[in-house]
Amino acid sequence: MATETPGAGDPARTIAALWGTRQPPRRGPKHTLTTVQVAAAAIELADHDQDLESLSMRRVAEALGVGTMSLYTYIASRDELLEIMLDTVYAEAVHELGTPGDADSWEDGLRQMARVNWELYLRHPWVLQIFTGRPPLGPNTIAKYERELRTVDGIGLTDVEMDAVITLVHTHVEGVARQRIEADRTVRRTGLTDEQWWKTVEPALSEVFDPSAFPIASRVGQAAGQAYQSAHNPEHAYAFGLERLIAGLAVLVAERSSATA
């Protein structure tokens, strides 16, 4: 669940900061930092913590060896900082998505897009804490959207359907990535792997659980547990769900193609 909802600040100032067009004031102390350096320090802290809860302007200032108030010369608020951080890491995805024609087909293009976003979330788990229904309107955010749309451009979909396909893939990848990240956090927090956890609860469960009363759940749960060595497997859910999405979209693309033939 997203816990951060940036976007409440001055939109003109934030967009200027995102696009690098904001000019620092001429008066006052000499400017020894850049917005890029401030964002990089914040990203390093968030990556280390794998969380945004403890990220503050004070901690970023300490990491840079400057006073907290001096950061406001470059970035207006923590909310603005989050938007710049998000747009900054999106540059990684822009680079990894490559150029049009790199993928052999639109299906492979969607697989590449999904993988790039999956890996982005695992590198920067804090990204999932930021609500992106109102995305930062920075150059990397827009470039990422552009490259993702190129994957399904020219295959017979309407513009609205193209946007919906990208949203559908994002929603799937984001949901499964959350499960993976939460699973990793649970292991760190409890000190138990899923297999170790199951060994601790199985004896107590066996005292009250009658498999004959829940035959389907018992059969399927046992099969899945043996296959995953866990109650769930985010990597399997990611791959399985993605292929089902692509198969369903292929039907839509074929329908559009036959309608125009």
TrEMBL record:
<dbReference type="InterPro" id="IPR001647">
    <property type="entry name" value="HTH_TetR"/>
</dbReference>
<dbReference type="Pfam" id="PF02909">
    <property type="entry name" value="TetR_C_1"/>
</dbReference>
<feature type="domain" description="HTH tetR-type">
    <location>
        <begin position="32"/>
        <end position="93"/>
    </location>
</feature>
<keyword id="KW-0238">DNA-binding</keyword>
<dbReference type="InterPro" id="IPR009057">
    <property type="entry name" value="Homeodomain-like_sf"/>
</dbReference>
<protein>
    <submittedName>
        <fullName>TetR/AcrR family transcriptional regulator</fullName>
    </submittedName>
</protein>
<dbReference type="InterPro" id="IPR036271">
    <property type="entry name" value="Tet_transcr_reg_TetR-rel_C_sf"/>
</dbReference>
<dbReference type="InterPro" id="IPR050109">
    <property type="entry name" value="HTH-type_TetR-like_transc_reg"/>
</dbReference>
<keyword id="KW-0805">Transcription regulation</keyword>
<keyword id="KW-0804">Transcription</keyword>
<dbReference type="InterPro" id="IPR004111">
    <property type="entry name" value="Repressor_TetR_C"/>
</dbReference>
<feature type="DNA-binding region" description="H-T-H motif">
    <location>
        <begin position="56"/>
        <end position="75"/>
    </location>
</feature>
